Amino acid sequence: MDQNQWQLLATKRFLPLFLTQFLGALNDNVFKNALVILITYATIDSAGFSSQIMVTLAAAIFILPFFLFSATAGQLADKWNKAKLISIVKSIEILLMGSAAVGF
Question: pLDDT for 85-99, tens place per residue?
Answer without folding.
Answer: 888 888 888 888 888
